[in-house]
Amino acid sequence: MSRPRASPRERPQGFDLDRLANSCCARxxxxxxxxxxxxxxxxxxxxxVDAEAEAVVTVWVRVPxxxxxxxxxxxxxxxxxxxxxxxxxxxxxxxxxxxxxxGDIRLDQTGVDTATAADTGGSGTALLGFTIKDLGKQSxxxxxxxxxxxxxxxxxxxxxxxPLRSGERLILVSGGIGSTxxxxxxxDVRMKHGERVTIDAVxxxxxxxxxxxxxxxEGVCDSLTVTTDDGSLGTQGFPTNVLPDLLDGCDVASxxxxxxxxxxxxxxxxxxxxxxxxxxxxxxxxxxxxxxxxCGLCMVGDRLTCTEGPVMEGEWLLDQPDxxxxxxx
Amino acid sequence: xxxxxxSLPGLEMSNxxxxxxxIQGGNAAALHRVAATACGGLVSKSIGPEPREMYPGPVCxxxxxxxxxxxxxxxxxxxxxxxxxLRTETFSKPMLVSIFGGDAEEYALVAQKLVDSGAGSLELNxxxxxxxxxxxxxxxxxxxxxxxxxxxxxxxxxxxxxxxxLSPNTTSIVDDATAAFKGGADGxxxxxxxxxxxxxxxxxxxxxxxxxxxxxxxxxxxxAQRKVAEISLAMLxxxxxxxxxxxxxxxTTALDVARFIQLGASAVQIGSALIWEDAAVFDxxxxxxxxxxxxQGYADLxxxxxxxxxxxxxxx
Lengths: 329, 316
Hints:
Chain A is α/β, with parallel strands linked by helices. Helices cover about 25% and strands about 30% of the residues of chain A.
């Protein structure tokens, strides 16, 4: 049988990507309302890819506004890359589906081409940005994704951070790509409470080349301390080196700490919070093959990270012997 | 209160609701988590001779209403690690340990290791690819001669009760059951998933990472019920030995449980329903079943076992 190949990068001249994005956006809305997160992934075309740092990109896709509006920081989406960067769909370990956190949302903007916005649903859509770091085969391929490529989506899955009250203080401690849910948490708290909350953030990176989201965090936080392992940016050391200064003398009853990053960093961070009498929460990053409580491979203690996480209470996590070790991606 | 107890070879259970193989049951923490619910018994993930990784995702999706597709790829920690788990852990519910292998010898080896470490009963997952040269079947469970070979080898290797898990993807499930009993099976579990395939029309390729997949969920329940009925009727006709059947396929309510039992099943396994309700589904179905039996006036499960077969007996 003679047949064309399903190559994603070969589209006819004059192909209307914007129209395709809107058609997929409508399909995503149906999947979201009818089957929710259990649905098969809905492919949407990538509309823009922003370089954030070395091997860190934000991949922008158009989604229904309600879906962006309902997103709660900490929740994740399963992102399916149906081919690797050569456009080859036959490499089984390049195409796969993995969990990613939303790094940024642009509301009230319909897409890359504002001229067509009026025709395509106006404020009914938003742009969702998945910020991805190359940490392995699947994430590596995603960082090389191009405008027009497919990204299959299903979600959002999992738990969110607890709400803050006006007058409270939030301390955020991220390591590496753990920046993404904490940026969304800071943004959310700032949008809800304005200046009636204080947000102090610590961002740890390996080095200056990996550093990202600094402008975004400065835009929503009252203070930001950057650390790098090698001292190439900010303070040399780990977030745990500078955290005591933030914890020192704070009003423990009205302070919360959220952390996201490698478990060997989060464990001492949560321990320091507990020692200071502060409620801490961690957004966990584990191998989540199914995301729907089927496979049982993401257990922390007696809980499933996929549905009972990824945001978990620090008090509980610190009691789990299997929390705090490095995990493969 | 109706008596929900079930007594099967190797399985003394407080009720007929078992966790189906492949769902959560590959490690101690996950098995304890399910055992803490009102379920009557556990079935482990299928354990093979060596550790195996999960296939690339998506590994499990709902393709249409009540249609669950999966291809996990028999991920498991391997017989040695699971044997250690059996030696060191005590579970609050009886466990049927599911096993697989590439050929009869591997099945026997895995069975031996797990029984030596305390497995009290085994379920033979026959829906896996085989290494038999020249066979036209894709999986062991599609060829009665291979079923006979595998069950016989395990029967020779161990003394515990054996349940053969049959595939629906065959011409005659009664022929498959005949081979399983000839090999020495003590009971049957059915059905495994139905061969399936889903395509994403935007991307132009199959959705599931492994490309091919198996279908489960509420949509397969009537297919499973018919297979269970075919086995039960063959037993009534004396074509198969009278032995316990564990019904599997799309159960989400106590009424579904009653349907399988009224078609001759002694117990049931529940898997896909955990996607919607997680392990708490066992608590709900347990309470629903107790209530159903109470209002229907069934003192125990035997009081309704096989009653729906009466009107089917004339069929061949």
